[in-house]
């Protein structure tokens, strides 16, 4: 058996943290992109589009992220679509992230007075012009804080990728635990690393929220 | 030749029959005040004229063209109809100048210099030339409403719809807004106002339309009608207002 | 091709998994909200030390993944002499997790109650406990009820992870079935839909409870 010093444990964990960060970034970028498209769909006055978005949100907010990962990973490969753990994790985290962001953003857009839409309409702005010049600039100000706040959920969500075998922070934690039999130390360290990733974002989100409320 | 024509317009909100067959004909240069209790359908009527609300039966034409809520149609309407709202609806993230310049640049595709010249001229007209670079939230309610008027004027509309535009203002700020309207009326602008300002309706308006229970109950020359109302409902209403 | 009929013979496996998930959800929802209410009260009205402790607890839980919390409790705590069964570890982890999130939510509700309400109660001679239970809690909960409902559903869905320490919940059942008949897609799809049904049911239950709790709204 190989001996693991504290240094070895920490080094391995920190190395794995890179994958956690990378997966989080990929999921966040994928999630915001899809959420933007969904938000635009939801804002159109087309009832079918809006129903589709509502069903999407209901489906991915109403089922466990872990189950979505299983479906993407084991399920798709059973159906003949080979997908790596990395691919399945990104795919399912993108679904998860976009389903929540589209709801968060809807809340932000709804806080804008209806009169902003009406005034734009009366001035002859098209739907896209209204979005671009009137709604988005205001909504982005409101949405930044909760979006940054949600990125914490994305980082924590990546921990589930360990279950389908993607080697990131949590997975390496369980591997080290099996090798060292020092669960208390290992999982404390794992938790601390997650905390150090997430807490600054939480603080920043709170700071943004305060700043916004003051400037209003 | 009529500028705005409504023919037997009916409007429902679900089961609620809001407009029950409105006939109205407004010529260019008229200043029409629509009065009535809240819930009589006067704001709804105004919002049907520029396509913000859908009506179910009848017809509305503007300058001979039919009004619908179809998006393209509304955009075309915006070129000839300006609207001022009760709560201003200025865009808070833009300066006063940007508020006024926005539609001329992106809808009428005017050059920035041209749009700015128009914006400055319109702000001058409402007496707020010096506020060009201020943000709306720094302005008083009366000033914000005057910016909203300038914003609508910058699109050179043929008719201006005013939806209770002084109702959200502190009493001492009402006058400055009405003065701007009076000036516009003198210049020959067609105005259709939903209002509670009886003095303004009598002194500046050319016609008063009294709405009651979703119908045009009584209408006529403003001075004659307000000094000599025919129906009991209008008499009662005026008793309550004055 | 999909073969859902292959799942039928395992319906009892799914059912017992479903029951475990329901049982844990009901239990931890009550315990978690109770913990959250206590901590939120401490955070809002308690002394400085109490406020600090609650803050640290809330931030630690909110900024680490549930699965790591679960592993820490199940694998880590025995190292310092605290042995827990998978079921116990799951229950504790879920309660602590929901407790932290609901603390934040409920505190926002408490903060939304105007000082005037508290003063009015004081003037009428109510003591602190009476003021809390009779005057503050109901309107405070009403304010944040939708957010609290959503959070309880999120925690219920998050409980899928406890299958990883071999609690025989719904996800465990899905894994078991797909390992026997190799119908992974069908098995997980059915399970996902069962979870969806559970979250709709939970929302429904919360709404029904809300109607009773906030009945004064409909009596006008």
From TrEMBL, chain A:
Domain of life according to the entry: Bacteria
Database matches in InterPro entries: AA_ABC_transptr_permease_3TM, ArtM/GltK/GlnP/TcyL/YhdX-like, MetI-like, MetI-like_sf
GO molecular function: transmembrane transporter activity
Keyword Transmembrane: yes
Subcellular location: Cell inner membrane; Cell membrane
Classification via CDD domains: TM_PBP2 (cd06261)
Residues covered by the ABC transmembrane type-1 domain: 17-205
GO biological process terms on file: amino acid transport
TM region(s), chain numbering: 20-43, 55-77, 83-102, 184-204
GO cellular component annotations of the record: ATP-binding cassette (ABC) transporter complex
Keywords associated with the record: Amino-acid transport, Cell membrane, Membrane, Transmembrane, Transmembrane helix, Transport
Main location: membrane
Membrane topology: Multi-pass membrane protein
UniProt similarity note: Belongs to the binding-protein-dependent transport system permease family. HisMQ subfamily.
PANTHER family for the chain: BLR6398 PROTEIN (PTHR30614:SF34), MEMBRANE COMPONENT OF AMINO ACID ABC TRANSPORTER (PTHR30614)
Name of the protein described by the UniProt record: Amino acid ABC transporter permease
Source organism per UniProt: Marinomonas hwangdonensis
Automatic annotation (TrEMBL), chain B:
Family to which this protein belongs: Belongs to the ABC transporter superfamily.
Gene Ontology cellular component terms for the protein in this record: plasma membrane
SUPFAM superfamilies per record: P-loop containing nucleoside triphosphate hydrolases
Xref: InterPro entries: AAA+_ATPase, ABC_ATPase_HisP-typ, ABC_transporter-like_ATP-bd, ABC_transporter-like_CS, MetN_ABC_transporter-like, P-loop_NTPase
Annotated protein name in UniProt: Amino acid ABC transporter ATP-binding protein
Entry's localization field: Cell inner membrane
Membrane topology summary: Peripheral membrane protein
UniProtKB/TrEMBL annotation, chain C:
SUPFAM superfamilies tied to this protein: MetI-like
GO molecular function: transmembrane transporter activity
Membrane topology of the entry: Multi-pass membrane protein
Domain of life the protein comes from: Bacteria
GO cellular component: ATP-binding cassette (ABC) transporter complex
CDD domains: TM_PBP2
Domain spans labelled ABC transmembrane type-1: 18-206
Single biological process term from Gene Ontology: amino acid transport
Record Pfam families: BPD_transp_1
Cellular location(s): Cell inner membrane; Cell membrane
InterPro entries: AA_ABC_transptr_permease_3TM, ArtM/GltK/GlnP/TcyL/YhdX-like, MetI-like, MetI-like_sf
Transmembrane segments: 12-35, 66-84, 144-167, 187-206
Keyword terms, alphabetized: Amino-acid transport, Cell membrane, Membrane, Transmembrane, Transmembrane helix, Transport
NCBIfam families per record: HEQRo_perm_3TM
Similarity comment: family membership: Belongs to the binding-protein-dependent transport system permease family. HisMQ subfamily.
Name of the protein in its database record: Amino acid ABC transporter permease
Organism this protein belongs to: Marinomonas hwangdonensis
């Amino acid at each position: 058996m190989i001996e693991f010093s504290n240094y070895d444990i920490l080094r391995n964990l920190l190395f794995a943290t890179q994958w956690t960060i990378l997966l989080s970034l990929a999921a966040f970028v994928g999630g915001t992109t899809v959420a933007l498209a969904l938000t635009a769909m939801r804002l159109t006055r087309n009832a079918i589009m809006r129903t589709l978005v509502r069903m999407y949100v209901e489906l991915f907010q109403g089922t466990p992220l872990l189950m979505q990962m299983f479906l993407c990973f084991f399920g798709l490969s059973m159906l003949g679509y080979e997908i790596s753990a990395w691919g399945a994790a990104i795919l399912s985290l993108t679904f998860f992230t976009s389903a929540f962001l589209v709801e968060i953003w809807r809340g932000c857009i709804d806080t804008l007075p209806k009169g902003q839409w009406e005034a734009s309409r009366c001035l002859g702005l098209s739907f896209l012009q209204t979005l671009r010049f009137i709604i988005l600039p205001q909504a982005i100000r409101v949405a930044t804080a909760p979006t940054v706040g949600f990125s914490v959920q994305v980082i924590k969500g990546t921990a589930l990728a360990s279950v389908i075998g993607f080697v990131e922070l949590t997975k390496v934690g369980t591997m080290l635990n099996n090798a060292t039999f020092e669960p208390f130390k290992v999982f404390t360290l794992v938790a601390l690393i997650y905390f150090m990733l997430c807490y600054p974002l939480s603080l920043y989100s709170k700071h943004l929220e305060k700043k916004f409320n003051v400037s209003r | 030749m009529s500028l705005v024509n409504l023919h037997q317009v009916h409007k429902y909100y679900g089961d609620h029959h809001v407009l029950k067959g409105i006939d109205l004909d407004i010529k260019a240069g008229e200043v029409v005040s629509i009065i009535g209790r809240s819930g009589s359908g006067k704001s709804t009527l105004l919002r049907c004229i520029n396509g913000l609300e859908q009506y179910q039966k009848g017809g509305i034409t503007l300058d001979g063209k039919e009004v619908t809520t179809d998006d393209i149609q509304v955009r075309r309407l915006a070129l000839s109809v300006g609207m001022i709202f009760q709560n201003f609806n200025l865009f808070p993230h833009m300066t006063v100048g940007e508020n006024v310049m926005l539609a001329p640049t992106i809808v009428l595709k005017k050059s920035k210099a041209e749009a700015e010249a128009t914006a400055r001229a319109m702000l001058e007209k409402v007496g707020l030339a010096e506020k060009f670079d201020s943000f709306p939230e720094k302005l008083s309610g009366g000033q914000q409403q005057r910016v909203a008027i300038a914003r609508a004027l910058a699109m050179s509309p043929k008719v201006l719809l005013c939806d209770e535009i002084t109702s959200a203002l502190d009493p001492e700020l009402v006058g400055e807004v009405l003065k701007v309207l009076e000036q516009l009326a003198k210049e020959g602008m067609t105005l259709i106002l939903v209002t509670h300002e009886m003095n303004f309706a009598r002194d500046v308006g050319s016609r008063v339309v009294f709405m009651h229970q979703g119908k045009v109950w009584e209408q006529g020359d403003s001075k004659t009608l307000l000094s000599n109302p025919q129906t009991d409902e209008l008499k009662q209403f005026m008793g309550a207002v004055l | 091709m999909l073969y859902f009929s292959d799942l039928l013979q395992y319906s009892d496996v799914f059912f017992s998994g479903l029951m475990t998930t329901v049982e844990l959800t009901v239990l931890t929802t009550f315990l978690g909200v109770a913990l959250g209410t206590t901590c939120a009260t401490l955070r809002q009205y308690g002394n400085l030390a109490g406020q600090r402790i609650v803050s640290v607890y809330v931030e630690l839980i909110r900024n680490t993944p549930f699965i790591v919390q679960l592993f820490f409790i199940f694998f880590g705590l025995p190292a310092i002499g605290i042995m827990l069964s998978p079921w116990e570890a799951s229950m504790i982890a879920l309660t602590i997790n929901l407790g932290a999130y609901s603390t934040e939510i409920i505190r926002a509700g408490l903060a939304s109650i105007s000082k005037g309400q508290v003063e009015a109660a004081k003037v009428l001679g109510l003591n602190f406990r009476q003021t809390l239970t009779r005057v503050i809690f109901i309107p405070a909960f009403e304010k944040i009820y939708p957010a609290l409902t959503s959070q309880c559903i999120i925690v219920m869905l998050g409980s899928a992870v406890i299958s990883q320490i071999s609690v025989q919940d719904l996800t465990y059942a899905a894994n078991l079935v797909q390992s026997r008949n190799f119908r992974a897609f069908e098995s997980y799809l059915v399970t996902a839909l069962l979870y969806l049904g559970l979250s709709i049911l939970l929302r429904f239950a919360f709404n029904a409870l809300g109607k009773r709790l906030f009945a004064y709204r409909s009596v006008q």
